């Protein structure tokens, strides 16, 4: 191919691409006032499926609600705004849109999904364990709303799973603070944190370690009855756990063994959890 023909083809290709880009840009920026609501909504769906950024579709779902309020398309546009905002990680805005949907259409079939989106927007903001746990509490409350208000919906099962994980997250926060105090030999403060896990978060993955750390902290303070009782609960419920092996070794080093003793709070836990004595 000659240089002239090559240059001509390159110029034509560049012009074609530029025209295509301009066409897409003009379509994106074109006013929507004269379009029927179904067309606006479908354009939003198309862009949501094909665009690299889901937020590019937000304009269409917002406009169909603005231009055709109180219609079926406005209702669909509003729930899609909540979805797109969540997908774009605009969590606070997603919650606002979902709440507007619930305010306008509380009995609609998508009310369960709007409630789930609100819960999900809190849940997805939960960061690493070391951060403030306020969002975790809000996520738990919102997830509970999905479970209790829409138990037969397709979102209930997912909400229950996420509720358990968020609950575990809170226990992890208590453990992190307890380990901090334990490392600095502030045993009383450490015990208070581990006690919360054993009493309030028994179903989480952190209970075995909490019982071991209680054994460790109580031994350091010379409270052997409490240490032995913590290890006894640990051995009964988590005998195969390496934490039980560590607690057993600590007790054995002082000539002690796991055994329920005394009348303290751990003895009460032992009677309730192991013997089923609740009175």
From TrEMBL:
Residues 1-21 form the signal peptide. It comes from the Bacteria. The keyword Nucleotide-binding does not apply. The keyword Methyltransferase does not apply. SUPFAM superfamilies: TPR-like. It is found in: Cell outer membrane. Its main location: membrane. Keywords: Cell outer membrane, Lipoprotein, Membrane, Palmitate, Signal. Coiled coil: none annotated. GO terms for cellular component: cell outer membrane. Pfam families: YfiO (PF13525). Part of the Bam complex. Belongs to the BamD family. NCBIfam families: OM_YfiO. This is Outer membrane protein assembly factor BamD.
């Amino acid at each position: 191919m000659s240089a002239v023909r090559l240059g001509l083809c390159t110029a034509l290709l560049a012009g074609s691409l530029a025209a295509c880009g301009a066409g897409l840009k003009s379509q994106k920026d074109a006013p929507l006032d004269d379009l029927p609501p179904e067309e606006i909504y479908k354009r939003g769906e198309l862009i949501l499926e094909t665009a690299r950024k889901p937020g590019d579709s937000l304009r269409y779902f917002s406009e169909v609600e603005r231009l055709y309020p109180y219609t079926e398309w406005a209702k669909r546009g509003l729930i899609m705004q909540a979805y797109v905002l969540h997908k774009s990680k605009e969590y606070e805005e997603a919650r606002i849109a979902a709440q507007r949907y619930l305010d306008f259409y509380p009995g609609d079939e998508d009310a369960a999904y709007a409630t789930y989106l609100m819960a999900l927007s809190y849940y997805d903001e939960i960061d690493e364990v070391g951060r403030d746990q306020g969002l975790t509490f809000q996520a738990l409350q919102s997830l509970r709303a999905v479970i209790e208000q829409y138990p037969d919906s397709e979102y209930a099962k997912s909400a229950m799973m996420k509720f358990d994980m968020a609950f575990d997250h809170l226990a992890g926060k208590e453990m992190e603070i307890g380990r901090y105090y334990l490392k600095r030999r502030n045993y009383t403060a450490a015990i208070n944190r581990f006690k919360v896990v054993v009493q309030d978060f028994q179903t989480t993955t952190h209970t075995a370690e909490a019982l071991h750390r209680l054994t460790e902290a109580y031994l350091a303070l010379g409270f052997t009855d409490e240490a032995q009782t913590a290890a006894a609960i640990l051995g009964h419920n988590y005998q195969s756990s390496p934490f039980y092996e560590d607690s057993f070794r600590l007790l054995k080093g002082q000539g002690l063994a796991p055994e329920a003793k005394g009348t303290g709070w751990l003895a009460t836990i032992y009677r309730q959890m192991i013997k089923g004595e609740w009175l």
